[in-house]
Amino acid sequence: MSTTAATAFVALVSALLLTAAPVRAANESNDRGLILRDTSLLAEPGHGAPLAELARGTTVSVHGRQGLWMLITALTPGGEQRGWTRLTALRLESGAPPAAGATGGSGGFARLSRSVTGLLSGLRGRETRTAHATIGVRGLTPGEIETARFDAAALAWIAEAQASAAQAQQFAASGGLTARTIPPLAPAAGRSP
Amino acid sequence: MQRPRAPKRSNVVRWCELRAAMLALLLGTAVPAAAFDFGKLIENVGKGDVDKLLETGKRVVAATRSMTEAEEIHLGRDLAGRLLGAMPPLRQAEAQAYINRLGRWLTLQTTRPNLPWHFAIVTSDSLGAFATPGGHVLVTTALIRLMRDESELAGVLAHEIAHVIERHHVEAVMKKARAALARDVAADVVADYTKGNPLVRNALLEGGMNLYASGLDQGDEFAADLTGVTIAARAGYDPFGLLMLLTTLDALDPAEPRASLLFATHPDTRERIERVAAAAASRLEDYGTTLRDLERFDTLQAELAAQR
Question: Does this complex have an ipTM over 0.95?
Fold first, then answer.
């Protein structure tokens, strides 16, 4: 390998490493994502001047979410940049981010009282996902569903756990959940239900 | 003294009644006319069969009227019992109490809060969740293991609750049963097979189980996504829990055996994500930072991990 080629190779490897391992805050998730279509990297979720344009196929690091926007770090022509992109423009390649609040400090959205817990649960609770099929595990087949026999004992057993409305309300209150009035969602224009 | 006999109806009148019953059956169903070959049917009917045929026609018309709520609940219970035969419940009383309280809270935000709602975690390596008419909702241990937080579980349960609220399975099962019964009526005449045939119940049950193996109409799934997102948001959750779980599913290998049934019975995952995002954009985004992480969900996942 010539010196030039070796230098280029080192540069390429460095670039790849940089892309895969951007600056990482102590309490931050660092999942990998793939940009599915050309899109803008924005300074704030949903608004602000574009920081950069991201091409389809770009690999990014994913740190969190606010609504339908994902906080990511991408290697752009201008260097490594952190910003927001649409959730729909991204495919999470290895898991997904924790609560947006756990990203600590961007804007004013770090409002979750349990943000750190949320992050830990995100890391601890979910399985490690890969793009490969699970070996040795098989799912139910349609035939197994259709030929299933009625299990009266199981049905009776699950009925014992039925919750009353009062228990449900207590459950909500203990979790800090309150009911809200929200009108039904209609399909977006141009899409049938 | 001999009682005066009621005037005997002529065969012509009975033929008219028969035709009316058959017409009602056809109009009341989406069965293509080709499913009934009237010419052949009539060729095979002797005059003595007319009463029998009329009776069968009436019976089927009665059976395929719209289902009452009590019938819906009964059918749903039978279907849930069958599903539990394939996926036994997780024998963890606390976990079952947890999912029932969460699910019940979601149902309180709907138009049908008073159905006899039952929720259950079922043991299976398949990624899936199932709803039966009248209010049984099952979710597999494999799917819960894939979730990050309670808002994702709420999102899945709300999607299933939406199927129940909107009677998607009831309508689909009725449609299947009408088609099956229409075929059987023709067979009834030809084979003279009318006695003690539990046509209706069997058609509904088998049609229902077939739905869980083959899936609902895609339109019903998209509709349940949107209604589910709304229910979760009304209950105080981050509305996008379902969306995040779909994003996780989208990253799975399409050949992933744990997801084969889910993928085969639902629309393309990316399409579901796009549709929810398009409908919710600018309408639910303000709710996107609301509570979604709760320690009690971590406890549930720890219990599931201990089951392994």
Answer: no
